[in-house]
Amino acid sequence: MTNPSDPVNIPAQLVKELRERTGAGFADCRSALVEAGANIEAAIDVLRKKGQAAAQKKAARQATEAWSAITFTPRENRRADRSEL
């Protein structure tokens, strides 16, 4: 019998169960299970913490490129809209 807490022997069924519960990718689930010692609840916490760290990183970034569009309505209305994507 294999030891599920061994990093090399994380059962695929355990990874599958974690993927179904979280929607995370295979590699992320496997590494979270390795870090959590094959404990699914602890692995969910690991994934949550990694997700929060990634979200904070992305929020701290400033956009270096943008695309703007200006649309004008007919002259009588004299209105313009600007959109940034």
What's a concise summary of this model?
The protein is mainly α and 85 residues long. It has helices at 12-22, 26-35, 40-60; strands at residues 68-72, 80-84.
Report on the structure:
With 85 residues, the protein is mostly helical. The chain has one domain: Helicase, Ruva Protein, domain 3, CATH 1.10.8. Helices cover 49% and strands 12% of the residues. The protein has three helices and two strands, in the order H-H-H-E-E. The protein has helices spanning 12-22, 26-35, 40-60; strands at 68-72, 80-84. The chain has a two-stranded antiparallel ribbon. A hairpin with a 7-residue loop joins strand 1 and strand 2 (80-84). Helix 1 crosses helix 2 (26-35), helix 1 packs across helix 3 and helix 2 (26-35) crosses helix 3 (40-60). The longest helix has 21 residues, at 40-60. The model has no long low-confidence stretch (mean pLDDT 78).
Mean pLDDT over the residues: 78
Number of separate strands: 2
Number of domains: 1
Fourth-tier CATH superfamily name: Ubiquitin-associated (UBA) domain
What topology, given as strand order, has the largest sheet?
Answer: 1-2
What structural category do the secondary elements indicate?
Answer: mainly alpha
By CATH reckoning, the class would read: Mainly Alpha
What labels describe this entry?
single chain, 85 residues, mainly alpha, Helicase, Ruva Protein, domain 3
Topology summary:
Elements (H helix, E strand, L loop, with lengths): L11 H11 L3 H10 L4 H21 L7 E5 L7 E5 L1
Antiparallel strand pairs: 1-2
